[in-house]
Design goal:
Blueprint (H helix, E strand, L loop, with lengths): L16 H8 L14 H5 L15 E3 L5 E5 L8 H13 L6 E5 L21 H28 L6 E4 L2 E4 L4 E4 H4 L32 H5 L15 E7 L6 E5 L2 H5 L4 E7 L2 E6 L2 H10 L2 E4 L15 H10 L5 E6 L2 H6 L3 E8 L12 E6 L5 E4 L5 H12 L6 E4 L19 H11 L3 E4 L2 H7 L7 E8 L5 E10 L2 H6 L8 H4 L11 E8 L14 H19 L3 H8 L4 H13 L8 E2 L5 E9 L5 E11 L2 E12 L6 H20 L5 E2 L2 E2 L17 E6 L17 H13 L13
Parallel strand pairs: 2-3, 7-17, 15-16, 19-20, 24-27
Antiparallel strand pairs: 1-2, 4-5, 5-6, 7-10, 8-11, 9-10, 12-20, 13-18, 14-15, 14-17, 18-19, 21-22, 22-23, 23-24, 25-26
C-alpha cells in the first residue's frame, strides 16, 4: 500500500516514568514508556520496538480498576478514542467505559498505521490498527491472568476473566485487574495469544457512549488554545497580506511597544509579532502595527502573485493544454468513440476551500533549564513534527517533548504545512524572550495562512452506444495535487490524491482513460476531508448523470446496469434506494406543495463503499436539501453510533462545500478573512440524514471521511434535474 506520509521508526519516547505513574495512580500496571522497569522489561529494552506490541507503552491499570490508555491517534471529534477503548477493552475484557484516553507522545510504539507510521488522517486509524489493538488487549489480559495464577497458586489454564476481574471458578476466588496490576509488572508478554471469536464480542460492533463527550460538555476538555504554563507570555501576529512578502518597516513601532501590557515587538519571516502579558493586549497591539510590506528579493516558498484571482485561474485551468499523464486506462478508447452513436463533453470545476475548523491554530513553546523543549500544539502526526522541530530548534529529538491536546476540529488542517502553522513562530519567540510563549492565530490570520484544498478543472468526454449506454469515458484533470503542492515540487510519479475519485471507480465501462495535466497553483495547498474524493467524485458522478441524460437513461437504472456482477455495490445502492422509500428522480410535487427532485451518487473512498440520495427543492433562489439517505459499507464495524455520527458530520461538510463554501482571491488577496465573508452551512440548512450501515464482510475501510464524497454529486444531480440544466461548478450557482 502506498502511504502518503513516512515517519522515522526509532524516535525516542518522551514520557517520564515518574510523570506517567503520577497520572496513572500508585500501583498501576506501568512497564516503562521506554524506561526499563524490572527484569522482564530490562531484557527486552535493547530490542527493536515492534509498533503496538509493548503493553506498558499503552496501558496503565489503576487500583480502582480504571484504565489509562495512551492512544496512537488524535481525537478531534471523530470518536477514535472510544473506538480504541472498545477494541482493546474487548480483548482485555474490560468495559470501555472504564477507560480514560489520552494522546500518546511520539515514539516507535505508536507507529501502528499498517505497522509503519503514525498519522491521524486518511481514515486510517481503526482499520490500520484493528488487529494490532486487539492483540494488545489480549496480551494484557494474558499478563493479568499469569499474575493471578501466581497469586492464587493455580494453573493459568484454570482461570477465566469477566470484565475487570480474573476468576477461578473451581474455588470461587476472584481478583480485580487493579489488585493484580502491581504483580503483573514483571510478567513476560506471551508470544502468541488467542483472540475472541467475533460471535462472542461484547463491545465491538455495539453502540458505546463516547468517552470524550462529558469533558467537552462540561468545559473540562483541554485543547491547545487552553494550555497554560507558569511564567507564560502571550503572542499575536500580523501576517503579510501576500505570502512571500517581508517586513520592510514598522512605522509606529515605538507606539506599539508603549501600548498596555506589551512585552516586546518582533519581526518574523513574513510577519510581525507582539508578545504581551495577556493575549488581548498582544492582539490589540499587533493589529495597531502599521507595517510597510516589501516584495521578496530571493526565492521564497510559493509567493503569491499580486495579480492572482481565482476567477481568472479557473478559466486558465479550463483552457490550459499540457502534458497528459495517464493514471488509469482500460479498453480501446479510440474504437469506443469511433463507434459511438452519440458523444457528450463537458468541463467541470471545483473551488478552493478553507478548513475552517472551530479551533484557531495555536502553539505553546517552553525552553527548560535542563536543555529540553516542551511544545503543545494541535497535530495529526507527532513523529513528523518531532523531526521538524528538531531541525528548527537544533535540539536532539530526545530533548523535545511534544504534547498533543485534543483537536478542536481538523479536517486535515494539522499536518506540516510550510508557513501554514504557528509552531515555528512560537518556537522562535520563546527562544528570543527566554520565557514560555503561547501564540494564537486570530481567525483573520488563520484564514490568511490556511493552506487550501486544490482547485481543478476536469475535461470530460463520454461515448454512448445506440441504446444510450456509456461505452467510454475520459477525464483529464488540470490541477496540482495536495501532496506535490505541500512539497512544492512535482514528484516522480502522479500524486494519487489529485485523481482519487476519478480513478478507482467500480462501474464496468468498456473503455476509460483518466489523466492529469499538472498546473502549479499559486496558493499553498493542503489535505482536506476526504482529500481528492471530495471534488473528484463530484466531477465523475455528475458527468455520469450527464451521460445518462444524453442516452435517455434513468440515473439509478444506469448505475445498476454498470454494476452488474458487482454484488457488494449492487446491494449497497439498493440499500440506499430502499432507505429512501424507493427511487423517484422527479421532478415531483411533495406533500407540502414544493417542487422537488432527487439525485443519486456513489463513491469508494478510503476502503469504504457509499451510496447517497439527496432530495432538494429551490425556494427564493436558494437550494434546500430536505433529506439525505446514505448507505455505507465499511466491510466491518466497531461502533455503529460513531459511524452514524460521522456520516452526519460528513454530510454537513459535503453540503457546505457544494452549496456555499469558496475561498476567493482578488488581486492576490484573500477576499474573506472570517466567517462573515466565508459562510459555512448553518443549522437551519442541515437536512434530515438517514444512515444504513451495510456490513459486507470485506476488509475494514475507513469511517471519518467516506461519508462526504457522494453527497455533493447527489445534490448537484438533483438540482440539475429540478432546473433542467447541468450545473458543473462547486459551489452550485446559476440555477435560477
Amino acid at each position: 500500500m502506498n502511504l502518503p506520509f513516512q515517519t522515522p521508526v526509532n524516535d525516542p519516547v518522551n514520557v517520564s516514568r515518574r510523570g506517567f505513574i503520577a497520572g496513572a495512580g500508585v500501583g498501576a500496571l506501568v512497564l516503562g514508556f521506554g524506561v526499563p522497569m524490572g527484569a522482564a522489561r530490562a531484557q527486552g529494552a535493547a530490542a527493536k520496538v515492534v509498533p503496538g506490541t509493548r503493553v506498558p507503552a499503552f496501558l496503565a491499570i489503576r487500583p480502582d480498576n480504571t484504565i489509562l490508555f495512551q492512544s496512537p491517534f488524535a481525537e478531534g471529534g471523530q470518536g477514535v478514542w472510544t473506538a480504541m477503548a472498545q477494541i482493546v477493552g474487548e480483548e482485555l475484557d474490560a468495559d470501555p467505559a472504564s477507560f480514560t484516553v489520552e494522546n500518546a507522545p511520539p515514539g516507535p510504539d505508536y507507529q501502528v498505521v499498517f505497522g509503519q507510521m503514525r498519522i491521524t488522517g486518511g481514515s486510517f486509524s481503526v482499520r490500520s490498527s484493528y488487529a494490532t489493538m486487539r492483540k494488545l488487549g489480549a496480551t494484557a489480559r494474558a499478563m493479568l491472568v499469569q499474575a493471578a495464577a501466581q497469586k492464587m497458586g493455580v494453573p493459568a489454564g484454570e482461570l477465566t476473566t469477566q470484565p475487570g476481574r480474573v476468576i477461578h471458578k473451581a474455588s470461587g476466588k476472584a481478583m480485580t485487574y487493579g489488585e493484580l496490576a502491581p504483580a503483573a509488572l514483571d510478567m513476560p508478554a506471551p508470544a502468541n495469544v488467542a483472540l475472541k471469536d467475533p460471535k462472542d464480542f461484547r463491545w465491538i460492533g455495539k453502540r458505546q457512549a463516547r468517552l470524550d463527550v462529558r469533558a467537552k460538555s462540561t468545559g473540562k476538555a483541554q485543547f491547545s488554545i487552553d494550555m497554560k504554563v507558569d511564567g507564560m507570555l502571550h503572542a499575536a501576529v500580523q501576517h503579510a497580506p501576500r505570502l512571500g512578502q517581508t517586513v520592510g518597516k514598522i512605522r509606529n513601532e515605538a507606539e506599539v511597544k508603549a501600548m498596555k501590557g506589551v512585552h516586546s515587538v518582533h519581526v518574523l519571516p513574513g510577519a510581525v509579532a507582539v508578545v504581551a502579558e495577556r493575549f488581548w493586549h498582544a492582539r490589540r497591539a499587533v493589529e495597531a502595527a502599521q507595517v510597510d510590506w516589501a516584495e521578496a528579493t530571493g526565492e521564497t516558498y510559493r509567493p503569491m502573485p499580486a495579480d492572482f484571482s481565482t476567477e481568472a485561474f479557473a478559466q486558465y485551468l479550463a483552457n490550459y493544454q499540457g502534458k497528459e499523464e495517464v493514471a488509469e486506462t482500460a479498453g480501446d478508447m479510440a474504437a469506443g468513440f469511433a463507434g459511438a452513436a452519440s458523444t457528450v463533453s463537458a468541463t467541470y470545476h471545483s473551488q478552493f476551500v478553507n478548513h475552517a475548523q472551530l479551533e484557531p491554530p495555536s502553539a505553546l513553546a517552553r525552553y527548560n533549564a535542563d536543555g529540553t523543549l516542551d511544545m503543545w500544539f494541535p497535530n495529526q502526526a507527532p513523529e513528523m513534527f518531532l523531526a521538524e522541530i528538531a531541525k528548527a530548534s537544533g535540539l536532539a529529538p530526545d530533548k523535545i517533548h511534544i504534547h498533543s491536546p485534543l483537536l478542536g476540529g481538523f479536517f486535515g488542517r494539522h499536518f506540516i504545512y510550510p508557513h501554514g502553522t504557528p509552531w515555528p513562530q512560537a518556537l522562535e519567540l520563546a527562544k528570543r524572550v527566554g520565557r514560555p510563549v503561547k501564540l494564537i492565530w486570530t481567525r483573520e490570520e488563520e484564514f490568511l495562512r490556511d493552506p487550501l484544498r486544490p482547485m481543478a478543472a476536469v475535461r470530460f468526454r463520454g461515448a454512448l452506444d445506440a441504446k444510450g449506454m456509456p461505452i467510454a469515458i475520459e477525464a483529464i484533470s488540470v490541477t496540482e495535487g495536495p501532496t506535490e503542492g505541500i512539497a512544492d515540487k512535482r514528484a516522480a510519479k502522479l500524486d494519487d490524491a489529485a485523481l482519487e475519485g476519478l480513478t478507482g471507480k467500480k462501474y464496468a465501462l468498456p473503455a476509460k482513460r483518466i489523466a492529469q495535466v499538472f498546473v502549479k497553483s499559486p496558493t499553498t495547498l493542503a489535505y482536506w476531508r476526504s482529500v481528492g474524493n471530495s471534488m473528484n467524485d463530484f466531477f465523475y458522478e455528475t458527468f455520469l448523470d450527464e451521460m445518462a441524460d444524453k442516452g435517455g437513461q434513468d440515473p439509478y437504472a444506469l448505475r445498476l446496469k454498470l454494476l452488474e456482477g458487482n454484488v457488494r455495490l449492487t446491494n449497497l445502492i439498493k440499500a440506499a434506494v430502499d432507505l429512501s422509500g424507493g427511487w423517484k428522480a422527479g421532478p415531483f410535487t411533495a406533500p407540502d406543495g414544493s417542487k422537488r427532485a432527487r439525485g443519486i451518487a456513489m463513491a469508494s473512498p478510503f476502503g469504504t463503499e457509499t451510496a447517497a440520495i439527496a432530495e432538494v427543492s429551490i425556494a427564493d433562489g436558494q437550494i434546500k436539501v430536505h433529506d439525505v439517505w446514505q448507505a455505507i459499507d465499511p466491510g466491518s464495524i466497531v461502533n455503529p453510533a460513531i459511524i452514524e455520527a460521522q456520516v452526519n458530520s460528513a454530510v454537513a461538510l459535503g453540503l457546505s462545500e457544494v452549496l456555499i463554501e469558496e475561498a476567493v482571491y482578488k488581486d492576490g488577496l484573500r477576499a474573506a478573512r472570517n466567517f462573515d465573508g466565508y459562510p459555512i452551512l448553518t443549522p437551519d440548512r442541515m437536512p434530515r440524514v438517514h444512515v444504513r450501515i451495510v456490513e459486507s464482510g470485506a476488509p475494514m475501510g475507513g469511517i471519518g471521511e467516506p461519508g462526504l464524497p457522494a453527497v455533493p454529486p447527489a445534490v448537484a444531480n438533483a438540482v440539475s434535474r429540478l432546473v433542467g440544466k447541468r450545473l458543473r461548478k462547486m459551489p452550485l450557482a446559476g440555477f435560477a
